Amino acid sequence: MIGTIETERRSVQPKPVPPVESRPVSASPVLWTFLTEWEVALCDETKKRLRPYFTKVINTAGSPETEERRSWMLRDWVIREFVPAWLDAAGLITHAGMIRNSPEVVSEAGIPIADLERARIAARGAWNMAWSKANGRIGNAVYDSSLSVSKSVADAFAKAGIKAAVRASLFNVYWSLSKDAAGAVVWSAAMDWRANSPWPSAKDAEAAGRDALIPAIILLQESAFHLLDRMMMVNGTEGR
Fold it and tell me: What is the pLDDT of residues 185-201, one digit of tens each?
């Protein structure tokens, strides 16, 4: 069963898990890396669902072409599912739809750079607007507390699998765009909670902001499991 809102709320700080043994030679390096990096960030309930995949990926190692195809499937997921999920959460529906409905990304040439750039500008604008409205009403205590907006967003992204899905050279691009969109969600939710609470506090406002990220986390976790299933079916020609 996928992690629920309550289990994700309880797992802001992931618990350490025993390290998984080294990758078996017969396991796909792309799939194994994704599994091991993603598992660390998940709540216990979602870890239980992920664990069987460590057995399922045995005998999935493929040709260089197969592994490259799987790698592009991961990057396509980040571009056309991960990024739009956060744009949707921030209310940037049009930008999310443009990226989500773009052709499958199977090479550098297929990355919808213009749509991503427009979305980046819109996400930065949403962040700036949310911050300007929140500043002075919530106070810097929310930002400076032990779990800042950036930390909350980083935790959310780890749980949703972004670091496990993209190369380091690409991570900063999608991190920056999605961080601004998710940050706008956090600030807006925190401000709304503060405005509607009879006894507002920075700590509770921050918690409300973190909770606002949870639906997107759960949506993307489910999507990532489907991605794993699809990648395991690739045999070098399938999915092209």
Answer: 887 887 776 666 655 56
